[in-house]
Design brief:
single chain, 391 residues, alpha/beta, 9-stranded mixed sheet, 3-stranded parallel sheet
């Protein structure tokens, strides 16, 4: 996992680096954490981290769903102890049991309730200690998620489908492929990034790819598993296609966002958007099937490593039929609302309505009395305050 830290822009500090004393539990990002401040760490920096990584890998590849709850229980014990005895300024604790059990048995299964109960136990014990020791009023506790979940009833083997079109495909877990012509990267498993012309050392964008790859884009959109097909096209914006609702273009200059219908209205907005700010784009889309879809599509399309063709899955579908230790009956990663809307539970009043999970970092900095770095994404939902603790 240290490669994730190496991949981060060195000029963009992590919250662990900005706060003086932090704890990270099962955190994929560890830049700014000392080995001693990591709980259930990944990597090879210590024997403890190696053991933790081995335990996580064994739990994942053996398909031991209940084992994820055991990991969560152990994280709770250590985080409660650290918060009580060390009083760190900032704590990040990832509890993965809800996600793992949802994938395996469905998000409404009884075992998911067990996983939620572990989160509840963590907060209850932190609060109990904080009230008893007199620092609860100075503590922010936030519970959130990075995605939602929805049922999966069919799996599309996207990598095999593209292979059957005559291309040599690189895809998980077989990343070493002789002379690949396309790469398929699935996440969630309801979103997929497809890369073509892999020999190019710069991103060509759809304008340069259209003549050769339009037939592939059309074939992918025709698959029943695909809801939206995104075609990033640099200065021309991102073309958004739906099989039954036509196409539109999403564009941004970095601060303003536009949505121009072409042959239809794939996001179902009922009209165009012309150079609205991020708040206006949020309000125009939050009640649709694709909440915040315009901003999210613009952000994905502009990412340097985004696919040449990006697919968002239809309801009841995902894009991986093989190589999952646990067959998925619930999934995430698509742009429809069941995956996009997440909770944010807080214990202190907020000054502004939270809109995006990207707002969490500037809000945590505000709670800690730390100035946000220039260019940081997101908007704080708290007023700047004297230094407190965030958990």
């Amino acid at each position: 996992m240290r490669r994730v830290d190496q991949d981060l822009d060195p000029s963009a500090p992590t919250l662990f680096e900005l706060s003086q004393r932090s704890v990270g539990a099962l955190s994929v990002i560890s830049r700014g954490l000392t080995p001693e401040s990591q709980v259930a760490a990944f990597g090879v920096r210590s024997l403890r981290a190696l053991r933790s990584a081995a335990r996580v890998a064994r739990t994942h590849f053996s398909g031991n769903v209940r084992g994820w709850l055991d990991i969560d229980h152990d994280i709770v014990e250590e985080v409660v102890r650290r918060v009580r005895d060390e009083r760190p300024d900032f704590v990040f604790a990832a509890l993965t049991g809800i996600d793992k059990t949802s994938h395996a048995q469905g998000h409404d299964a009884p075992i998911v309730g067990d996983a939620i109960g572990i989160v509840d136990e963590l907060v209850a014990r932190i609060r109990d200690d904080a009230e008893r020791l007199g620092y609860w009023n100075d503590t922010h506790v936030w519970i959130t998620s990075d995605h939602g979940h929805s049922p999966v009833r069919a799996h599309d083997d996207l990598a095999r489908g593209i292979t059957e079109s005559g291309l040599r495909v690189m895809a998980h877990p077989w990343v070493f492929t002789f002379a690949p012509q396309a790469a398929v990267m699935v996440s969630g498993n309801a979103m997929a990034h497809v890369y073509v012309e892999l020999e190019q050392r710069h991103r060509p964008f759809w304008g340069a790819l259209r003549s050769r790859w339009e037939s592939l884009a059309g074939a992918l959109l025709a698959r029943p598993s695909v809801d939206l097909l995104l075609l990033p096209n640099e200065a021309h914006g991102c073309e958004v296609r739906s099989r039954n609702r036509g196409s539109a273009v999403v564009a941004t200059d970095g601060t303003r966002f536009s949505y121009r219908r072409q042959s239809g209205d794939p996001l179902g907005l009922g009209g165009d958007l012309r150079r609205v700010d991020a708040r206006g784009a949020y309000e125009a889309t939050i009640d649709t099937d694709y909440p915040d879809g315009v901003v999210q599509i613009a952000t994905i399309a502009a990412a340097p490593r985004a696919g040449d063709i990006i697919l968002s899955a239809a309801r009841d579908w995902d894009f991986r039929a093989r190589y999952e230790p646990i067959p998925h009956v619930s999934s995430h990663g698509a742009l429809h609302r069941e995956h996009m809307l997440v909770p944010l539970v807080v214990n202190q009043p907020v000054a502004h309505t939270p809109r995006r999970t990207v707002d969490v970092m500037p809000s945590a900095l505000a709670a800690l009395g730390i100035d946000a770095p220039a260019g940081l994404d997101g908007t704080s939902f708290l007023e700047p305050s004297r230094k407190t603790r965030a958990a």
